[in-house]
Design goal:
The protein is α/β, with parallel strands linked by helices. The protein folds into two domains: 177 residues, 2-enoyl-CoA Hydratase, Chain A, domain 1; 58 residues, no CATH class. Helices cover 44% and strands 16% of the residues. Strands 1, 2, 3, 4, 5, 6, 7 and 8 form an eight-stranded mixed sheet that branches. α4 links the parallel β2 and β3. α3 packs parallel to α4. It starts with a helix and ends with a helix.
Amino acid sequence: MAFFSFLNRIPPWGKRRAGPVVSVLRLTGPIGMSMGMGRSLSLAHTAGAIERAFSRRAKAVALVINSPGGSPVQSTLIFKRIRALAEEKNIPVFAFAEDVAASGGYMLALGADEIYADASSIIGSIGVISAGFGFHELIEKIGVERRVYTAGESKSTLDPFKPENPEDIERLKSLQKEIHDVFKDLVKSRRGDMLVGKDKDLFTGEFWTGAQAEKLGLIDGLGDLRSVMRKRFGDKVQLRLIEHAQGWWQRRLPFKERASWSDELLGTVERRSLWSRFGL
């Protein structure tokens, strides 16, 4: 009798799991960089997880972002997929910045209806950058003759083994301005009247702490995932992590077949340079 009395006190299965479900989608790493084995973000890599996050059962989707940016194209594609599903499913989206949501990482955060960060998070860097090296003096010193043949006068634009051409630089800056204008328009369309300050202050490529970003209207407040979601949906909210799928063939391939050591080294250096811009 005591055993059956105990069973009667256990709430039905449906009631035990009655709390609202929030899908948690982690977006971590540089965006659009595929060299080596380091973690990177692209629409191809994240599309399946994004789709699963917007399931029928989800009350909301929480994006946990830790990215220094990267490809403007992949950033835009991921942003658009998130917004398309949010509007199609009528599900609110919240973004939570961890260490960094800068440049393309901030563009991902713009996919949310509300953006939160830690007071010490790095936010912003609304700009476009192109960096490289020039080796033309080096190869002259070591006696290397480089032979390049092209069809098309601009095919060797910005060749690092040739002196810089002012026309090439002007063309590059023109492209950067176009991309920057698209980024600025997106920020204005998503943040609207919440933005505080003039364009010359907000869109210089500068970045700020979460506390400063809140004052500028770049984020909605300071807070972490668990605290904000419990405040919004109650103490029984269920935070369900959505895993990024990986094909079985990728998991089974030995490291040397997935990427060469040189690709891995270059990828690591490039990723490291992105993070180091923000002191990380």
